[in-house]
Amino acid sequence: MHAYRTHTCGQLRKDHVGQSVRLSGWVHRVRDHGGVLFVDLRDTHGLTQCVVDQGSSLIESVGKWRHESVVTITGSVKARRPDTANAKMATGDIEVYMDAAILQSAADVIPFQVAEDDGAGEDMRLKYRYLDLRREKMQRNIRLRNTVIASIRRRMWESGFQEFNTPILTASSPEGARDFLVPARLHPGKFYALPQAPQQFKQLLMMSGFDRYFQVAPCFRDEDGRADRLAEFYQLDVEMSFVTQDDVFSTMEPVIAGLFEEFSNHTGEKRAVTKTPWPRIPYREAMLRYGSDKPDLRNPLEIVDVTEVFAREDVEFRAFKEIIAKGGVVRAIRAPKVSDRPRSFFDKLNDWARGEGAPGLGYIVFEAAEGKGPIAKFLPAAAQAALKTIAKAEAGDAVFFVCDMEERAAKLAGKARDKICADMDIREKGVYKFCWIVDFPMYEKDEKTGVVQFSHNPFSMPQGEMESLDTKDPLDILAYQYDCVCNGFELCSGAIRNHKPEVMERAFAIAGYGVETIKAKFGGMYNAFHYGAPPHGGCGFGIDRIVMLFADEPNLREVYAFVMNGAFEDPMMGAPTAVSPEQLRDLHIKTDLPKEKIKATG
User: Fold this and answer.
1) What angle do CA 206, 211, 217 make, to 5 degrees?
2) Which residues pair with 495 in a beta bridge?
3) Spatial contact of 463 and 477, defined as CB atoms under 8 Å apart
């Protein structure tokens, strides 16, 4: 007999009755029923109920076992009586009567329960992550992640892609987020950077003639933490040669749609997946209709522009007119059939808007011929009729308003759209709704400095190429850039790349980068452009967000084995940590800490 186990804790069935078996695992629960001990033994495969019968010599030793101790038991398999069988357990028709038991590793008193959710906070869960990972839900999520990645690899290989690994230590580059820097001991004063994405390397693979590349790639970005963002994450990184934007979509849609269909019932509720080809929504249209470049299409509400209604001469609503005169806009959201809602429904939305920094959320309710509400009195009948036409409002509907400068109005209207949908509880359920957001602006203006800068990926091909760069206002230039969105989450970002050195020089010049900067920051790729670069494009799908959607979890930390907290600290490993003066001397580094930090670290 094997030293530790003949079977796993999820394996035994009725046809094993009468056999002598050996199991090893963790003590999940111990129950004393009048001198008979029942021990639920757990491993990653399942649970088995083990019994120490009355009068057994094992009663005393087994009775001292603490939860989460690791034990090995040897015994005989017996069938449970019909009235004691547990249909909820795969092994619920049998139990193992112990003949021998070995305590392999005793556990101290555990800081929180593993057998059930006792509400332990995030810091406690992360400090003792190895205990947290023993929980059934976490085991299920981490195994799901493994299965998803295996499916992704299989689908990519079947689509003709080859998997390559790219460097982790590379050069720092301005790609939109802060780099994590690594000091180079052999090159004093110089630093490597951990890659925000394998962007340049995957493009260089196209220039090396490999045609179709993918990688389950680690990416590192020194950004503020949030529920759907981590400092370290993994993405399905993809690049293809001799492709258009349509080719990228038609290649990746079957891969991702197939993946979502495969795992659409992971939580027990079968979910429908948007049929391909997925809708394509231009960025500016998305910002107008949904107030977001990652719209949740399960939300049936849409935003419309009603600036012209409030700009009419017969409308005397000065609060909006003054903003319109400065170049502002008015956005409206139709909420269907809410006229019978209590006043508190509208008051709560108004309070919510104030909490978002707005004066409130004005509205009109159309109960019959004329509208009612705090703004209705400022709109004569003709203006109300025009409003109803634009907003497609009917009797029983309400129309909510946001007025501000265009960008701020779009963001608040987007949040209001989501809030109204949630309060009405009309978000479509049981679906994964996909779309592509396309035609992103190539450039944007920094609100504080007024400087023109790249808005997305600096390596994208501008639509119209050199002609657009030479003749258009930079803020009017669109790029072949695209995002894939599902249920309000950005799952993917990508682009058709610029592959022409002269276009790269001009595009970077508009953003304030000279040729010398290009050579210093992107020298490898810039040089490669001069030796025959194929037209190419690609994207990166966030694996962690995909798994998060499958597991129906609100936070990425629930689908990762080992993670940091929201402050990017690892309570379990104690990272980040100070290093010794000797290590700093080796790296030729001196620290210059803020005064409050010096006090805190003593």
Assistant:
1) 70
2) 481, 538
3) yes
Does the structure show a pLDDT above 50 at 437? yes
Structure token pair of residue 563: 């993670």
Question: Residue 405 and residue 409: Cα distance in Å, rounded?
Answer: 6
Reading the block at residue 237, the tokens are 């990184």
Does residue 596 register a pLDDT over 80? no
Q: What is the DSSP string of 234-280?
A: EEEEEEEES--HHHHHHHHHHHHHHHHHHTTTTTSS--EEPPSSPPE
Q: Could you tell me what percent of the chain has a pLDDT over 70?
A: 98
Checking DSSP bridges between strand 363-366 and strand 191-194, what pairing results, if any?
A: unpaired
Tally Cβ neighbours within 10 Å of residue 527. Answer: 13
- Pairwise CA distance, residues 302 & 586, whole Å: 59
3 state DSSP class of 501 = helix
Helix (H, G, I), strand (E, B) or coil at 192: strand
Strand partners, 94: 79
Residues in the chain: 602
What's the whole-model pTM score?
0.90
Residue type at 223?
E
- Report residue 602's pLDDT band, with 50, 70 and 90 as the boundaries: very low
Question: Which phi and psi angles does 448 have, rounded to 5°?
Answer: -80, -45
